[in-house]
Amino acid sequence: MNIAVQRLLNQLLLQPQNDSPLDIVQWMGAMQAQDYSMFQWSIGVRMKKPDQASVIKALNDGTIIRMHLNRCTWQVVARQDVYWMLSLFGEKNKRTVLAWAASGGKPLTPDMQQTSRKLLFEALSGGHTFTVKQLAPLYAEAGISDIGIVRHLLTLAETEGLLCSGQTSGNLHGYTLLKERIPVSDPITKERALARLALLYFQSHAPATLEDFVWWTGLTKSECRTGMSMIAKDLTEFKFGDSIYFSHRNHIPGRYIENKVIFLPAYDELLLGYKNRTAVLNKEYENKAYNKFGIFYPVMLYGQQITGTWKRKTMTHELFCGIEPSAEILQEAKERLSAFRKTATPPFSSKAPLT
Description:
Elements: H1 3-10, H2 21-28, E1 31-32, H3 36-44, H4 52-61, E2 64-68, E3 74-78, H5 82-103, H6 110-124, H7 132-141, H8 147-159, E4 163-165, E5 175-177, H9 178-181, H10 190-205, H11 210-217, H12 221-230, E6 235-240, E7 243-248, E8 261-264, H13 269-272, H14 286-289, E9 299-302, E10 305-310, E11 317-319, H15 327-342
Antiparallel strand pairs: 1-3, 2-3, 4-5, 6-7, 8-9, 9-10, 10-11
């Protein structure tokens, strides 16, 4: 099995299956959403016909939700997956946020936390959406003026199931009350939630290892093994090199397209979805694709390998390995990205307009 090609197929990069942002996000399970404009392209690049307006509409409709989940990092997920994912990640993420704040010398005291919950409930009740910029003065009036503390309190509120993403103008994240955005769903057992997570990961990211799954989730190895054991009948195990890989029966069949360039966004799942990224990125060039602080750059995929980076404004590229693609192939990649951006005239309204 060619691991790189099958991953490209399962991740909807070689042969996109449809144009629905919801279907794409739900298939992928969770998609890294660190960079607000880039995560929209991470959905668009997986569409048959890239359309940023439809991604923004899905965010505004609440059919896809952006919030802190896996590894206490920004993710975009399907609305129907929010509550059971919170049941897996919420408490661990809460401890993480509290530890982050304390390590920076600005602990979140119980009084701060209670003030924040009360403030958010009062400000956002009734379907309001507020940005950090709009919320900051309200926190200042309540005696919390440090913007770093405000951001930690907002993330903490997400981990507690109080907040999620609200409406957007396309380039700003807004917060709204989760229970007003999405009706509370019936709880499921931890084992069923782990099984669901394993299904979503391996159908969209396989071939992958247990270590890859542990990395992607941020959960313990024991928890990940439990999830995999629950779907064992749907997994096929095979050895490649020194590692044990698993493929899922829901894999997407297809063929390798040799002469194809894809401009991948920063923080794309093709890299962020795995602990070991050497299937598509030579270890020698890892520092060209991301730095030691966890900042991932927009990268260019040529064939089966990441061979360069590209700039989001000019779409110019810089090769760091391999051969230069032809001008025609490069133009096709640029046209897909340009077509995506040209649709972005989002219909937007809010009781509290974003600024």
